[in-house]
Amino acid sequence: MAASMFNASLFLLQASLIVLFALRSANAGGLIDGFYNKTCPSVEAIVRETTISFISRAPTLAAPLLRLHFHDCFVRGCDGSILVNSTKNNQAEKSALPNQFLRGYQVVDAAKAAVEKACPGVVSCADILALVARDAVSAMKGPHWNVPLGRRDGNVSLASEAFNNLPTPADDIATLKQEFQALGLSVKDMVVLSGGHTIGTAHCFTFANRLYNFTGKGDMDPSMDKNYIAQLKKKCAPTDNTTIVEMDPGSFKNFDSDYYTLVSKRRGLFQSDAALLNDSETSAYVRLQASSHGSTFFQDFAASMVKMGRIGVLTGNAGEIRRHCAVIN
Ligand SMILES: *[C@@H]1O[C@H](CO)[C@@H](O)[C@H](O)[C@H]1NC(C)=O
Ligand SMILES: *[C@@H]1O[C@H](CO)[C@@H](O)[C@H](O)[C@H]1NC(C)=O
Ligand SMILES: *[C@@H]1O[C@H](CO)[C@@H](O)[C@H](O)[C@H]1NC(C)=O
Ligand SMILES: *[C@@H]1O[C@H](CO)[C@@H](O)[C@H](O)[C@H]1NC(C)=O
Ligand SMILES: *[C@@H]1O[C@H](CO)[C@@H](O)[C@H](O)[C@H]1NC(C)=O
Ligand SMILES: *[C@@H]1O[C@H](CO)[C@@H](O)[C@H](O)[C@H]1NC(C)=O
Asked: What percentage of the chain has pLDDT greater than the value 90?
């Protein structure tokens, strides 16, 4: 598993350049607050109500809902391509290895169904997903931000693109920088958005190599706190494919700045978390938030989410308004 993630990262630079080229032409950048003021004034209330009703019953859905938006935007831009089901003739993004544990599609589908009832054929799935992700973060006591709207849905969703373009838990700092930069996101956006790991869980196999066999010699990752490794080993056996652990133990349901405290103590779960200490700008940010109880984290996160939400969007007459988020019209 770790090996295939590593392979995925080898393709990243090449694939990112192709994506960058494609995005330049597609990104009209024309999203605005209040896009549906006249055509669907209740959209935000409907999406919020639907999202809250799911999350209040299952709070662990919040993190995957945030991830859905992130995984949508990183592949072909924020065009709802992550939501599309595979068909007989097409392996869609959601079937790709890096997306195998994504969940929460039912929340987006329910929000879409409710919105369609109020204003049929008007609101894109890509916009609904951006709103759901925002509402999920807010529901975990995180920041709230205005989501500029007006995205349209894409008509292409390819598993291979997800495999090639999504960052992996094994990425080092240079790879992470390239991946974000290729999409127009800064180094600061990268360290800020990594803070989303304050909520959610991870499968043992995504970091087990750091505990048991880091360089293939039965060794541990020297960049992880030894005491933390000992704790994690009690939860994760070397070939454990099923166990999940909290990324921010004790407050995985609270969107807060604890992630930075953990990373600064060398207790980030993934190599891609630990990598943030390997660069002067990102490590300065980690230490600042850790030492100031996240003085600017919420406002930074809101700003970076808005920026991420603009990646490669289809606007105007491009794309379509899908009737069902899982099916291209
Ligand atoms: C939409 O409505 C809000 C609140 O009334 C207002 O602040 C905003 O300017 C409007 N936007 C557009 C594009 O009409
Ligand atoms: C997607 O839409 C574009 C433009 O609207 C069209 O040229 C293309 O053939 C469509 N692709 C698929 C797979 O439907
Ligand atoms: C550690 O990794 C090496 C190289 O991939 C492999 O040959 C070895 O069997 C692994 N050891 C354990 C204990 O899994
Ligand atoms: C974990 O998954 C791998 C690959 O699918 C499989 O070979 C292995 O037996 C699994 N290990 C356990 C403990 O289930
Ligand atoms: C940090 O950089 C050092 C030196 O280049 C490297 O050995 C180490 O693997 C890096 N750590 C991470 C977590 O990327
Ligand atoms: C998409 O796939 C899911 C899971 O297989 C299924 O439950 C859902 O009904 C499908 N959606 C549509 C609109 O076909």
From this structure: 88
pLDDT at position 252 is: 81
Give per-residue pLDDT as tens, 217-256: 999 999 999 999 999 999 999 999 999 999 999 888 899 9
Write down the CATH number for the domain with range 173-306: 1.10.420.10
Domain ranges of the chain: 9-166, 173-306
295 half-sphere exposure, CB direction, 13 A CA radius: 8
Fold (CATH) for 9-166: Peroxidase; domain 1 (1.10.520)
Q: Which two tokens stand for residue 131?
A: 């709103």
Beta bridge partners of 152: 314
Q: Tokens 């009703």 correspond to what residue?
A: 53
Contact between 185 and 308 (Cβ < 8 Å):
yes
**Cβ-based burial of 46 (10 A; exposed 0-12, middle 13-18, buried ≥19):** buried
**Measured distance CA(260)–CA(229) in Å, rounded:** 18
Expressed in angstroms and rounded, the spacing between residue 146 Cα and the centre of ligand 6 is 30
**What DSSP state is assigned to residue 142?**
-
**H helix intervals, 207-315:** 208-212, 226-235, 258-264, 271-274, 280-291, 297-308
Interval between CA 71 and ligand 1 midpoint (Å): 29
What is the gyration radius of the CA atoms in the chain, in angstroms?
19
324 flagged as catalytic: no
The response to whether residue 27 sits with its C-beta less than 6 Å from ligand 3 reads no
Q: Which residue minimizes the CA distance to atom 2 of ligand 1?
A: 34
Question: To test the ligand 4 pocket, which listed residue (241, 242, 243) has its Cβ within 8 A of the most ligand atoms?
Answer: 241
